[in-house]
Amino acid sequence: MATLFARCVRATFTAVLAASLGLAAGTASAQAPTEVTYLLPAPKNAIAFAPLMLADHKKYYADEGLNVRFVSVKGGADVGKQLGAGNGDLGGALGDTPIILRPNGIPVKGVALLGGKALHQLMTREDRNIKTPADLKGKTITVVAYQDTSFFATLAILAQADLTRQDADIQGAGAVGIWQLLASGKADAMVGAPEMGAFAEEEGAKLTWQSTNEFFPGMAQAVLASDDMIKNNPETIRKFVRATLKAVNEVQSDPDAAAASYLEAVPSYKGREDLVKKVLNYYAKNVYPGQEKLGEFDAKRVEALQDYYAKQDIISKKTPVSELFTNEFVQ
């Protein structure tokens, strides 16, 4: 009888223990994803954000245990300011944004650079006979805004021909006006993101495209994080960067296939498939290449760009290059 009783006790204990372990495993597997607020410098349907939208649409963030919420703010500088103030977890801006913000006490760094070449392109109307930077003298050039990197890149292009801001009519026309003025012929040239040129060509303009990379050590888009986020949530950053770079690699490897997936993710471009393919192919060939390891910052390029900003009095003082970015999250 005692032996039978002992067996019953052991059986009951084993059943309870198994149930407890099963419940714990179930709880772990059903653990809620980490919420991430990602700040965008423009509306999320900008084609420049294709890797982010693809990573979200294809569940790459979800596979990393992340639930990403995209929030648009007013430009890359605002992204950095909001991150520095703790109003977001991660954000997107050009890779040079920390160069401009850190001297003003805003503690943000780049944690991944989405391409080895410059985002901005010099796009000129074919009917205006612009072959070299010297030909921009007296011409009307549109940029997004006077505080936007497109404006600084324009100054750098003019400087190649010993020209200054006073030698051309540079107009800060906004994200739409920048390409509309070029398309209508009211502007001769534009410095902006690739899709802006594609929009102008969609309206019938015939343009010549040239990367500002040839004139100015500009940078591609970057993922930014505050110093506090880097210190307190490094694994979240690592997961986000890994998922995002997976999507960047897909666009670079097969832009046509990426375009098809992007149209599923952002159906507002339905009927404009050729435009999306054109833009993503341009990114794949002229913006994303040039890194030894996808996502890495090049310290020499960052230093050269900071030197240029200091020379142009765009920044009042330099920041140690090691404080402007980190490659620790790029795998």
Which percent range describes the beta-strand content? 15-25%
Mean pLDDT: 90
Largest sheet: 5 strands, mixed
Q: Helix- and strand-based class?
A: alpha/beta
As a percent range, the share of helical residues equals: 40-55%
Total number of domains? 2
CATH class of the largest domain: Alpha Beta
How many angstroms separate the termini?
Answer: 63 Å
CATH topology type of the largest domain: D-Maltodextrin-Binding Protein, domain 2
Q: Please, how many helices?
A: 13
Order of helices and strands: HEHHEHEHEEEHEHEHEEHHHHH
Question: Number of DSSP strands?
Answer: 10
Gyration radius, rounded? 24 Å
Shape: globular
What spatial order of strands do you see in the largest sheet? Answer: 2-1-3-10-4
What's the CATH architecture name of the largest domain? 3-Layer(aba) Sandwich
Identify low-pLDDT runs.
1-29
The CATH superfamily name of the largest domain is Periplasmic binding protein-like II
Please give a handful of descriptors for the protein shown.
2 domains, globular, alpha/beta, D-Maltodextrin-Binding Protein, domain 2, 5-stranded mixed beta sheet, 45% helix
Helix/strand layout:
Elements: H1 2-29, E1 34-40, H2 50-57, H3 60-63, E2 66-72, H4 76-84, E3 90-94, H5 97-101, E4 108-113, E5 121-125, E6 140-143, H6 149-159, E7 169-172, H7 174-184, E8 189-192, H8 194-202, E9 207-211, E10 221-226, H9 227-232, H10 234-253, H11 255-265, H12 273-286, H13 299-311
Parallel strand pairs: 1-2, 1-3, 6-7, 6-8
Antiparallel strand pairs: 3-10, 4-10, 5-8, 5-9
Helix pairs in contact: 2-10, 2-11, 7-8, 8-12, 10-11, 11-12
